[in-house]
Write a structure and sequence with these properties.
By secondary structure, the chain is of the alpha+beta class. The chain has helices spanning 35-46, 71-84, 138-148, 171-185, 200-212, 243-254, 273-286, 322-335, 401-409, 584-595; strands at residues 6-9, 18-21, 25-34, 49-52, 60-64, 87-91, 96-101, 111-113, 126-131, 155-159, 164-170, 188-194, 224-228, 233-239, 262-267, 306-310, 315-320, 341-352, 373-378, 391-396, 414-418, 421-425, 430-447, 452-473, 479-496, 499-515, 521-537, 552-573.
Length: 598
């Protein structure tokens, strides 16, 4: 038996998630987008061509900006988001950038920056800058710059004979290095301090707040405190006359009450507490070791942070610093969102093919529609066979389930087996099972003396049609579906140890398709052929005993049936979704016209 698998994507997918806002601004709304999609969106916002290098991280990105911003600012925000996820952008010529893994960025001939860098817009793009210290030695400057560099994705090269250093890092970090080195050059002293309680980013933030506020007369602008590495150290830069006073203030902040451990309960409304707790633990324990990722200290949890799920109240019990609790709240705002609900309408029909027919789609009135595009892909033929082992054919365009059902009702060769409707959540599996439980003997006990079977063990097995659909909803309301279909039927019987057992025929296919909200996907091509004996005789004469055989004929008739499944996903609700199309009724009307018999 030759099977073909036909997939028809009947509505095209939409674009990436950059929602337009008033006055020429945009809002980023990324929901489970992969890196290629994020890069394509960056190219549109920045007006550049993005070339992707092999080996980019296979990660998914979810992010939503709180307020509208200009396209330039949105591109900068997306650039930072890519950097956090291990993707660096390196200039590759006029109007072109190359996306590379962050760990390789320093070796990809990044842009060379000369002159003043403080006035440049902060960016996560990887650049190279030459530093030429004049009042400190190259070795001293190298120690400071290495401590400030991004672990795993930067490079510091010393040219001792020329008295210079070449540093490759993100522009934001290069600007920080330039500022610190300038302070040191102004007869300042730099010292690295190991912290005991506070985290580097928290202490530096609190120090800056005091420097510009309550202690602005005590702490001058020439004093700087910058976090280093994993957040357990800070680099203190100050004039020699103020160094001891600054170190004392840092020690005081390191013991501040704000660094004490707190226990908080975070109630979840949508997500499962056990699943979220496992994910948060993985982020907290493995975030610092992400290969090639430029993981900022401000986004990391402290080493002592821990979280436990409470299933009874569906909440998280978190133990950690106040900064850890705030980071957890920010994370939960994304994780505890309401997942999109998808209603999937299903039509399962069986078409009996006529002589010369190669597809059952025509019997349902499904043909190439105006505005649709077709595809036809075949695999290699099985040795000795005259047709391909698998053929994918179909069209993309608008369809109407009601129009298909109307045509099916008028065609005696079409049998609608089931029309269920299921509702499921984003990334949750929905199952449609149209089957009968068939008893199958799995064991028996015999009386050796009588040689007869006295007892049998029976297992019931569902035989029929089983359809599994796992939808994933994009921020643009497009639906990506993982579809698995299994068709089993009894094609005969056999006897095993005096037990008559069914012979079960199996047809199975799996596919992944993307369709717009309200679009229809057609799955077809799973066929079954049966043979039956048909007796025909002349009326009255064929019923005469003995002589009737002369007026009777028998012939074997082969019948081929094809299973056709139609799916229409409709996005019902969910957070971070684009608004529903306003012309859905008009599209439905045009779909029915496209399906009308010609």
């Amino acid at each position: 038996m030759t099977s073909r698998f036909i997939i028809a994507l009947l509505v095209a997918a939409a674009t990436h998630a950059a929602e337009p806002s008033p006055a020429g601004t945009v809002r980023l709304a990324l929901s489970d987008e992969d890196v290629p999609q994020a890069l394509a969106l960056y190219g549109k916002l920045a007006g550049v061509t993005v070339i992707s290098s092999p080996g980019l991280p296979m990660t998914r990105i979810t992010h939503e900006t709180a307020t509208p911003m200009t396209p330039v600012a949105a591109a900068a925000a997306l650039e930072s988001l890519l950097a956090v996820n291990g993707v660096a952008l390196v200039p590759a010529g006029p109007g072109t950038v190359r996306a590379v893994p962050a760990a390789r960025a320093a070796n990809e001939a990044p842009e060379f920056i000369t002159g003043e860098v403080a006035s440049l817009p902060p960016s996560q793009r990887v650049v190279t800058r030459m530093f030429r210290p004049s009042k400190v030695s190259v070795a001293q400057a190298e120690t400071v710059l290495r401590d400030l560099s991004t672990p795993g994705s930067s490079k510091v090269q010393t040219l001792a004979s020329a008295g210079t250093l070449l540093v490759t890092d993100s522009l934001t970090n290069i600007q920080r290095m330039d500022r610190i080195l300038n302070l040191i050059e102004k007869e300042s002293t730099a010292k690295t301090i190991e912290l005991k309680a506070a985290r580097g980013s928290d202490l530096a933030r609190e120090f800056k707040s005091l420097q510009t506020g309550a202690l602005r007369d005590r702490v001058g602008a020439e004093v700087s405190v910058e976090p280093l590495g994993d957040g357990s150290r800070v680099l203190v830069t100050a004039p020699a006359a103020r160094l001891e006073e600054t170190l004392a203030l840092v020690a005081e902040l390191d013991k501040a009450p704000g660094s004490s451990v707190k226990t908080e309960v975070h109630l979840l409304k949508q997500a499962d507490s056990a699943d979220v707790a496992a994910l948060v633990k993985e982020i907290a324990t493995g975030g610092r070791a992400m290969p090639g990722a430029q993981k900022a200290d401000a986004n990391q949890f402290s080493p002592g942070f821990s979280v436990f799920p409470d299933k009874r109240s569906n909440s998280l019990v978190a133990v950690g610093l106040p900064s850890d609790q705030e980071r957890l709240r920010e994370l939960l705002r994304s994780l505890d969102s309401r997942l999109a609900q998808v209603r999937i309408e299903v039509v399962i029909a069986e078409v009996t093919l006529g002589d010369g027919e190669v597809s059952g789609l025509a019997a349902l009135g499904i043909t190439d529609a105006v505005g649709s595009s077709s595809f036809n892909v075949s695999t290699d033929s099985v040795p000795g066979a005259s047709s391909p082992a698998l053929t994918l054919r179909g069209t993309t365009g608008p369809r109407s389930l009601q129009a298909v059902l109307g045509i099916a009702a008028q065609n005696t060769r079409v049998k609608v087996l089931s029309t269920p409707t299921v509702v499921t959540s984003h990334a949750s599996r929905a199952i449609v099972n149209v089957s009968q439980s068939q008893p199958i003997v799995t064991g028996s006990q015999s009386d050796l003396a009588a040689a007869t079977v006295s007892r049998s063990t029976v297992t019931y097995r569902d035989i029929g049609i089983k359809l599994e659909v796992t939808p994933r909803v994009g921020s643009d309301r497009s639906v990506q579906m993982q579809v698995s279909q299994l068709v089993e039927n009894i094609v005969g019987t056999t006897t095993i140890d005096r037990n008559e057992q069914p012979i079960i025929g199996k047809r199975e296919a799996s596919s992944q398709v993307t369709v717009a909200d309200g679009g229809v996907v057609v799955l077809a091509g799973l066929r079954a052929s049966t043979e039956r004996k048909v007796e025909s005789k002349v009326w009255l004469l064929g019923s005469i005993p003995l002589l009737g055989n002369l007026f009777t004929s028998n012939q074997n008739v082969s019948e081929t049936r094809e299973l056709v499944i139609l799916l229409r996903p409709t996005v019902e609700s969910g957070d971070n979704l684009a608004p529903a199309a306003s012309k859905k009724d008009e599209a439905s009307k045009s779909a029915q016209e496209a399906l009308a018999p010609r």
